[in-house]
């Protein structure tokens, strides 16, 4: 279809009206950029809370409840929501119409490049997925497993990093070894003891959803070196990584890393990314392929895969959601990742100190700052049931927390938009219920 110049400009005009309509719901959106400018003023006496207050005003969930469930699913900002709405409406003016399709077709390459630059990944090392679980499965199914092959996971994993291994165990006879990543154990010692000549992959959480332990970058790099010397694939489950702790994929030294947009990055639900080292692209083979995985193919049996991690993608994609994912990360960048992560750590320190003043509470999370993250997990007094506490806090006080794997452990996922008062209110609430 060939468009005349006049058609295009009319459509552009319509599009602008369209955007104005679709963003009317978000009239209170503070333009991206304004919050960043406040950063400069923060040093000149503006209280830290002010940029947080302004950011909270962009996150409706923060006025609905005391939101400590980012580790489960993060709340989006008005910016991200408006972007999804706009792109969805824009696309549906003519999904196959080149006028619209051309703009939409930039969304994925732009997002891949942006995530690569933000998280220390090679330019060709990002695949866009719909969840962390999708990335984990890409990794888990990437080898030709044989009976007796071994994978090493930990005792702190989410079901998403357990289920694929159970299925591989039952289908191919692989063995699952579990290391102990409770607070205070040595990752390297644990891993060394678990490795055998049959180990083919190590897959553990960068930040555990069960105890909040973060694998430090230096220990991860050391583990990566050890595993590479033995030809073992190293995968990190980073569902709780980007936006919660500093992530530089290159420095972590793993071969691949699965993450999502819908937790700490505050992006749309059903967005994710899988990062791969260029050298590992051919080791991590495709188990799922389809239209878009290939650079070239014919119907006589020949094909070549894309020379990038985009080969792991296939089929029709949720482009509007990916556009919202890009906006969500841009917004965090505008807020300042350093400032966000520093505040997450500072709030964590407050939570640790406040918990330690209460004799009945213990920490399941590590105490040392370098091992901690925004995932803060309390060990409740004995006899106090975490699910019961979760229900009471949610029902009576609108405080959203989460029970985790170990009975009696309760998680507060503390993001930058939370406050010390909210943490104190949660601890008071927990103490009252227990
Ligand atoms: C450590 C960890 N891995 C994986 C997942 C699954 O994430 P997703 O819903 O993005 O697949 C979660 C979700 O809470 C998680 O905490």
What would you say this structure looks like, in words?
This protein is an alpha/beta fold. It folds into two domains: 225 residues, Aspartate Aminotransferase, domain 2 (3-Layer(aba) Sandwich), CATH 3.40.640.10; 97 residues, Aspartate Aminotransferase, domain 1 (Alpha-Beta Complex), CATH 3.90.1150.10. A seven-stranded mixed β-sheet has the order 2-8-7-6-5-3-4, with helices on both faces. The chain has a four-stranded antiparallel β-sheet with strand order 11-12-15-14, with helices on one face. The chain is globular, with a radius of gyration of 23 Å. The chain starts with a helix and ends with a helix. The site of pyridoxal-5'-phosphate (PLP) has 14 residues, from helix 8.
Q: What spatial order of strands do you see in the largest sheet? A: 2-8-7-6-5-3-4
Bound molecules: pyridoxal-5'-phosphate
* Number of strand segments: 15
Name of the level-1 CATH class of the largest domain: Alpha Beta
Could you say which structural class the secondary elements and strand pairing correspond to? alpha/beta
Distance linking N and C termini: 67 Å
CATH-derived architecture of the largest domain: 3-Layer(aba) Sandwich
> Biggest sheet, open or closed, and with what strands and sense?
7 strands, mixed
Mean pLDDT: 91
The poorly predicted ranges are 1-27, 36-46
Shape: globular
CATH superfamily of the largest domain: Type I PLP-dependent aspartate aminotransferase-like (Major domain)
How many domains, as an integer? Answer: 2
